[in-house]
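Translate sequence into structure tokens.
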Amino acid sequence: MLTVHHLGISQSERIVWLCEELGIDYAYKRYDRRADNRLAPDEYKALHPMGIAPVITDGDLVLGESGAICDYICGKYGDGRLSPGPADPDFADHLFWFHWSNGTFMATLMMQLVLAGGGGDANPAAVFVNDRSRRGWEMVEKRLGEAPFFGGRNLTTADIMMVYCLTTSRAFRGTPLDGFPNIRAYLARIAERPAYRRAMEKAEPGWTPMLG
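Result follows.
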């Protein structure tokens, strides 16, 4: 049985949303963060050698990493839905945003968080990361002015990956969305999706998604 192990306020919300969009059967287990340091509890860390979210189990399989999990679930349980094939005109755009999400954008945001308060303009590393972050947000805003979804005409796993970066991850940094009208309009469209609402109600009960 496919089981999604969700750590509260984490990237594993993506996998809950994916399963809800696909309408597949899955088991669900939620883990609260520790009260003392807001990190994952030992029970969650024991699931996978990296000790971080997300993690799924499927029989004897234990799989981590958001992108790998998206590909696995879409391939095994979703009949390839939400992942356009090579003949689709949106194929390349989907691939770019799907991989850019964690490969570049999320990595940059995490570096920015680590370097926050680290000397500002006097710290060359902070200057580099802040500039990369600025360019990333500008790319996102531009893309969402060109197409309704990151992958193009339709929602794909590129959106499953990117929405967390634009919403819940901001809880750790407080990044405002002022000056990003395309992003705000996009998130309003995402908020209207029944599968997204179901997923967030399940993943973060009593918590208002950061959609604006």
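Note: The mean pLDDT is 94.
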